[in-house]
Amino acid sequence: MTASIEFADDGVAFVNTQRFHDVKAAAHEHLLSRIEELGAEFGRWSRAAIQQFVDLEVDSFVRLRRVPINESELRQVSAALTKELAGLGPLEDLLADAAVEDVLINGYDNVFVSRRGILAKESLRFSDNNHLLRIVRRILAPLGRRLDESSPMVDARLPDGGRLNVVIEPLAVDGPMVSIRKFRKDPLKPADLLTLGTFNEEIHRLLSVAVRERCNILVSGGTSSGKTSLLNALAFFVPETERVVTVEDTAELSLNHPHVVRLESRQGGFEGAGAVTIRDLIRNSLRMRPDRVVVGEVRGPEVMDMLQAMNTGHEGSMATIHANSPRECLYRIEMLAGFAGFQGSEDSLRRQIASALDFVVQIGRLSNGRRRITSISEVTGMGDNVIATQELFRYESFIAPDGEEKDRWISLGIHPHTPKLAKYRDQLRMPTPDAPPPAAGGNGGFWSRGR
Predict the structure, then answer these.
(1) What CA–CA distance (Å, rounded) separates 361 from 377?
(2) Cα–Cα distance for residue pair 173/179, rounded to 1 Å
(3) Domain-by-domain residue ranges, the chain?
(4) Calculated CA dihedral for residues 203, 451, 310, 358, nearest 10 degrees
(5) Any idea what DSSP says for residue 137?
(6) pTM of the predicted protein model
(7) How many other C-beta atoms lie within 10 A of the C-beta of residue 69?
(8) Name one GO molecular function term (predicted).
(9) Most buried among 32, 63, 153, 424, using CB within 10 Å?
């Protein structure tokens, strides 16, 4: 009993010990034999009934085998086995935690979790790689997706809207690699992003008018920078009378709009048979009478179909793209168009891009985990055979006198060039050349008043 007393005052430590996993594995074998005796009847039990069954059986197992654990440790083993039989084992608490954004598993004993943009290692672990695979296959089973040596990589959408990516041997060298991206059940509204400090009032007003007046917007940023959340928020500005078609590789967008048609690509079966690409879906979406087309992420040949949609009457369309700056975003579009087999001249391609896009909104995740719009640039046309842009807002951080790091957005005092916003120009206030820099917080006054 000495060993059990050693962990009695530290429940977390016991859960992370090998002894906990040994006791749990032995009790699990006992439960499986009892479940086999019950047969089909067990499959009809509620979670409450399963929990009661596990509590009784584990208690009996511990007493009969004289397992040296105390009452607190017994409850922890029972709780873990209930999650194992009726839920998703060690993953269950993480997936239920609203603060968790990403769960990254590099083998059974190496789990990392992202909360508020900060990645940290968790003390949680699985018994072994087989245990991890068993839980992953339980997630995939109702989705109809295979995971084995012949199909060692899978990307799937979870029922709650999250995304699961798994790579196993022989592709993954150090055990199963599992990546789970969670999404909020209630998408962030523009007001929420304003409160969180993603942008300021002037940017909020600019984006709201730009979306309502059907400007084509590309949201650019790195991995986990908040592109999807920002795109969801922008949809709040789309008039309710319009029909929006979303096209995604894995459906992640959750637009708060009454008339949304969601399309998701499909991976091919054996030898790629039956595959439906994003490019196929964008082409088909144009036959569905959309007012706007929203592409979850542009990363391949579909860039040409997106540009065609923006240039052929589907103004107000939006998309996200992986890039580190607005200028790099435009270069990336050119590169993707080359992959798509674009046959025209470089000048012709750049004119298509310049005529399709109105704004590039750059968003980034800072070192402290905060997500901020770092730049808003307008695409103004062509000049000297390059796509001309003008930056309207630029983000910078500064240290206040009290030593606290704060945000501000520098308004460059330039009126938007697009004629779509021409009727709002009387609401713009141009700062005088000798005007002081904007005050802390970014209230530099790009817009003198709201719409």
Answers:
(1) 7
(2) 16
(3) 13-87, 88-183, 190-429
(4) -40
(5) H
(6) 0.78
(7) 20
(8) ATP hydrolysis activity
(9) 424
The owner of tokens 């873990």 is 80
Given this structure, which CATH class describes domain 88-183? alpha beta
Please give the single-letter amino acid code of residue 29. E
Q: Pick from 306, 309, 341, 310: which is nearest to 321 by CA?
A: 306
- What CATH number has the domain spanning 190-429? 3.40.50.300
Q: Hey, what are 349's tokens?
A: 């391609």
Write out pLDDT tens, residues 205-255. 999 999 999 999 999 999 889 999 999 999 999 999 999 999 998 788 888
* Residue type (1 letter), 104: L
At residue 79, the pLDDT reads 87
Whether the upstream peptide bond of residue 142 has omega within 30° of 0, thus cis, is no
Edge-to-edge order in the sheet of strand 153-157: 118-121, 111-115, 100-106, 177-181, 163-167, 153-157
Nearest Cα residue to 107 out of 21, 171, 172, 176: 176
Which one, of 309, 255, 239, 254, lies nearest residue 278 by Cα? 309
Evaluate whether 106 touches 129 at the Cβ level (below 8 Å): no
Are both 88-183 and 190-429 of the same fold?
no
**Per-residue model confidence as pLDDT tens digits over 356-400:** 999 999 999 998 889 999 999 999 999 888 999 999 999 999 888
191 neighbors 175 (Cβ within 8 angstroms): no
